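Lab meeting, item 3. Inverse folding demo.
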C-alpha cells in the first residue's frame, strides 16, 4: 500500500474561511471560479509539508491559518518508522499532520500528536509528496535546478562519486584558503614573528621564576624596615626575659612574673585539684614564653640592614615589573605568555615548510578532483541521454509529437560544489529546429507540458506517492489539454495526483472532482468545497466550457469529455 493524503482541512487561509477536502487515492481535480481559492488548496498542502509560512496569506480578520491533513501510511513502514523515531504516533496506519501560521509570522507544526520543528515536515515530505506551484516552471529555467533535475534522475549511480567529490572539494577549498592566507599575509606574519622574538628575548634575558615577584616584594619590605623590625624584636625580647645588662630576674619581665605566680600556686596545689590544673597551665605558659623569647632573639640577630641587597632587589623588581606590564599579570603570567609565543613563533617560522606541504596536498587534491569530476561527467552524460529520450517520449504523449528535449552538458573552468558540469535543458519544437534553451524554445503552454513530462519521468525513476500540481496546464488548450488530462490519469495509476486546473479537458479525467464554491461575500466556507457526483461534474464542466452550467451545448460537450475519459481508463 502506497501512502496517500486522505483528507485536508484548511482554516483562515487566503479567501478560505474553512474548507475540507476529501481525496481519493487516484486522480483528484480541484476547480472553481477565479478568486474562489483554488490556489490556496495547493498553498495549504505546501504548508502541510513544510513550505514557507507567509503571514500575508492569512485570511483578513483571522489571527492564524491552520492546515490539518490526514494521511494513510503503511503500518510499520518507512514513514511510520520515521514518525516513531521522533516520538509521534500513526494509529492504525493513520497519520495526522498539522501546521499553524500566526498573523505575526510564527509557525508551529505537529506530527503524529507531537510538536516538531517545521523542518521535520520538509524532511518527511521527501518520501511523501512533490508539490508544484506556478512558480516551479520559472525555477525549472534556472541552471542549478536543471542540474538538480538531472542528478535526481541519475539516482544511485551518482550518489557515491558525488559524495567522494564533495568531500575532496571541501578539503580542496580549505587548503586553497590556507595557502592564500599564508602567501597574501606574509608581511603581517613576518611582523608578528619579529614581535614575538623580541618578547621572548626579553623574557629569556630576565629569566623570571614562578612567584619571584611576590618573594622579592616581601624581601624588599623586610630590608626597607630592617631597623624597625630589629628594634621591635629586641623590645619584645626584653619585655619577656628582661634586659640582660640588668640584674637577672628583674621585677617587671614576663618570665619573672610568671615564675612568681607559679611558685605561689605550686605551694598549695596539693590541696585542690582545680588549682593544680592552673599551676600546670602556668608552667606551660612559662615554657611557651621562653620559646618565643628565644625566637625573638634569633630574629633580632638575623635582621641586618643591607643597602646593597636592597638596591639589587629593587632593581630586579623594576625589571620584572616591566615584563609584567607587557606580558602578564604576574611572573607566572609572563612565563605562560612566553610558552604561547614560542608555540606561535614555531608555527610562523614553519610557514615555508607548511606552504610546501599544502602545495603538495593541493596538487594531489586537484588531481583527485579532476578524476572524480570526470566520473561525475560520465554518469551525467549517460543519464542525460536517457533523460532526454524519456522526456521526449512523454512529450509525444502530451500532443507534442515533433518536439525533442536534449540535455546539454558544458564544462566549467573551475571546480564547483557539484563538479564541473554545466547542465542545460534544451528543446527543439520540430525536427528541423535546433535545440534551444527552454526559455527560448518553449512557449508557456509547452513549458507546462515539459515540466509535467519531467515529473512523469521522475515518477518512474524515483517514485513519489503524491503529486500536487497548481495549473500545470496553464497556457494549454484544445487537444494538448486532453493529452495532459490523459497523462495525469496515467500517472495516477501509480501515484495519488492532486491537480488545480481551469481546463475541463483535464478535469474530465479525474477520479474525484472537487469544486471550490465562492460565497456571496467573497469568502469560502466549509460547505464551499463539494465533492461532485456525475451530474455535478456535468454542470461544472459545462460551466468551465461555456460559462453556463445549464447550457445544452456545454452539457453535451461535458458528457462527451467524460465519456472520452472513461473509455481511456
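The presenter then showed the designed sequence:
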Amino acid at each position: 500500500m502506497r501512502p496517500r493524503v486522505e483528507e485536508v482541512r484548511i482554516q483562515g487561509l487566503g479567501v478560505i474561511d474553512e474548507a475540507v477536502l476529501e481525496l481519493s487515492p487516484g486522480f483528484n481535480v480541484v476547480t472553481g471560479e477565479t478568486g474562489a481559492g483554488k490556489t490556496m488548496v495547493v498553498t495549504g498542502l505546501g504548508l502541510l509539508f513544510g513550505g514557507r509560512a507567509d503571514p500575508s496569506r492569512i485570511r483578513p480578520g483571522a489571527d492564524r491559518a491552520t492546515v490539518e491533513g490526514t494521511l494513510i501510511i503503511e503500518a510499520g513502514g518507512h514513514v511510520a518508522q520515521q514518525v516513531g523515531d521522533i516520538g509521534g504516533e500513526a494509529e492504525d496506519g493513520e497519520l495526522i499532520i498539522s501546521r499553524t501560521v500566526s498573523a505575526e509570522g510564527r509557525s508551529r507544526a505537529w506530527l503524529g500528536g507531537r510538536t516538531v520543528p517545521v523542518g521535520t515536515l520538509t524532511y518527511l515530505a521527501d518520501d511523501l509528496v512533490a508539490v508544484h506551484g506556478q512558480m516551479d516552471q520559472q525555477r525549472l529555467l534556472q541552471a542549478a535546478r536543471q542540474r538538480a533535475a538531472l542528478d535526481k534522475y541519475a539516482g544511485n549511480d551518482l550518489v557515491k562519486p558525488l559524495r567522494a567529490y564533495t568531500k575532496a572539494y571541501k578539503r580542496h577549498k580549505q587548503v586553497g584558503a590556507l595557502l592564500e592566507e599564508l602567501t597574501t599575509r606574509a608581511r603581517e606574519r613576518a611582523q608578528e614573528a619579529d614581535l614575538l622574538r623580541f618578547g621572548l628575548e626579553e623574557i629569556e634575558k630576565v629569566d623570571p621564576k614562578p612567584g619571584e615577584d611576590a618573594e622579592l616584594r616581601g624581601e624588599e619590605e623586610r630590608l626597607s624596615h630592617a631597623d624597625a623590625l630589629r628594634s621591635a624584636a629586641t623590645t619584645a625580647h626584653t619585655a619577656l626575659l628582661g634586659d640582660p645588662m640588668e640584674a637577672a630576674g628583674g621585677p617587671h619581665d614576663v618570665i619573672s612574673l610568671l615564675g612568681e605566680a607559679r611558685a605561689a600556686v605550686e605551694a598549695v596545689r596539693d590541696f585542690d585539684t582545680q588549682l593544680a590544673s592552673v599551676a600546670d597551665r602556668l608552667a606551660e605558659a612559662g615554657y611557651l614564653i621562653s620559646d618565643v623569647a628565644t625566637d625573638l632573639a634569633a630574629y633580632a640577630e638575623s635582621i641586618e640592614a643591607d643597602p646593597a641587597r636592597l638596591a639589587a632587589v629593587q632593581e630586579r623588581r623594576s625589571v620584572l615589573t616591566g615584563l609584567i606590564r607587557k606580558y602578564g599579570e604576574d611572573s607566572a603570567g609572563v612565563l605562560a605568555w612566553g610558552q604561547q609565543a614560542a608555540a606561535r613563533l614555531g608555527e610562523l617560522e614553519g610557514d615555508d615548510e607548511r606552504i610546501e606541504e599544502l602545495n603538495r596536498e593541493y596538487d594531489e587534491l586537484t588531481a583527485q578532483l579532476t578524476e572524480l569530476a570526470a566520473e561525475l561527467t560520465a554518469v551525467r552524460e549517460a543519464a542525460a541521454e536517457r533523460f532526454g529520450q524519456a522526456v521526449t517520449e512523454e512529450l509525444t504523449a502530451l500532443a507534442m509529437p515533433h518536439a525533442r528535449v536534449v540535455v546539454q552538458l558544458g564544462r566549467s573552468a573551475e571546480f564547483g560544489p557539484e563538479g564541473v558540469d554545466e547542465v542545460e535543458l534544451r528543446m527543439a519544437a520540430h525536427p528541423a529546429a535546433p535545440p534551444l534553451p527552454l526559455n527560448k524554445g518553449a512557449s508557456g503552454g509547452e513549458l507546462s507540458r515539459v515540466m509535467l513530462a519531467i515529473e512523469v519521468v521522475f515518477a518512474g525513476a524515483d517514485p513519489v506517492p503524491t503529486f500536487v500540481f497548481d495549473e500545470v496546464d496553464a497556457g494549454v488548450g484544445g487537444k494538448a489539454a486532453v493529452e495532459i488530462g490523459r497523462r495525469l490519469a496515467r500517472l495516477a495509476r501509480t501515484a495519488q495526483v492532486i491537480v488545480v486546473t481551469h481546463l475541463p479537458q483535464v478535469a474530465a479525467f479525474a477520479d474525484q472532482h472537487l469544486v471550490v464554491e465562492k460565497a456571496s461575500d467573497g469568502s469560502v466556507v466549509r460547505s464551499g468545497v463539494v465533492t461532485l457526483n456525475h451530474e455535478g461534474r456535468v454542470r461544472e464542466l459545462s460551466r468551465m466550457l461555456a460559462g453556463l452550467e445549464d447550457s445544452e451545448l456545454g452539457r453535451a460537450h461535458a458528457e462527451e469529455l467524460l465519456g472520452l475519459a472513461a473509455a481511456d481508463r
